Predict the structure.
Amino acid sequence: MASNAPVLLYDGVCGVCNSAVRTILRFDRRATLRFAALDSEFAHDIIARHPHLAGRDSVVFVGDPGGPTETVRTESAALLAVADYLGGYWRLALAARVIPGFLRDRLYAAFAKVRYHVGGQYDTCPIPSPEVRSRFVDATYG
């Protein structure tokens, strides 16, 4: 897998986040999007390069990780980047771009506050299945 393939940083103990990752894995036709928990060493390296991410509890879409054109998108922009990446019918979600970013991010933040109540919380980040384990950065399982 290309080392510059995009990476999605997510809350590894969040039930909603883990469900979203499983959904993305199912619909990723290119099978190149990679994943890393927000508390992983990989994520800490990204945050060190983008200090404005420090202390954020948000999904982060990282384009060209470690490359000269590395970009990071957070909150609703990250979700829209995932929809754009997945393509197909998922691109219909891009219509949400007509909603001002600050408003989309307020909605994102409101849901993020209750996500553990909605989807539960794991004690530790679940171990991905062997079939997809290679798509997880810093996955030191087993």
